[in-house]
Amino acid sequence: MKIREAKITDAKEIWEINNKSLGYDIDPETVREKLETVLGREFYKVFVCVDENDKAVGYIQLQDYETTYFESCLNVLGLAVLSEYQGRGVGKILLERAEDYARQKNFARVRVNSGAERTEAHKFYEHLGYSCHKMQKNFYKDLT
Question: Which residues face 109 on adjacent strands?
Fold first, then answer.
């Protein structure tokens, strides 16, 4: 397995990962458009883990986390691995790559949010040295 920066040509595989592993039902064209936007912005980074055929089997999306009330850190916006590759260390090496990237940018920490129902993910993060600091709710207002 190899880690590399994502390319726009990874969009279909990222769509598949989102759909199968996270349950997000968004059309492939929208994923391609979003990926194109993200790859064009300096405060975002997306890494993919690819198999021997250069097919993305997992990815991590990162964003600089800058606030006026907390030290700068790297925020994990998404981490997902195809189910048939889970348990093979893919998530771990993606998270390690994120940590290396955070160090390169002189961030003191990596921040991860994980849905309350994703208990297996919580165990994974804790196994890798992450600790839960607070429980919170997310609020949305649909503007469409």
Answer: none
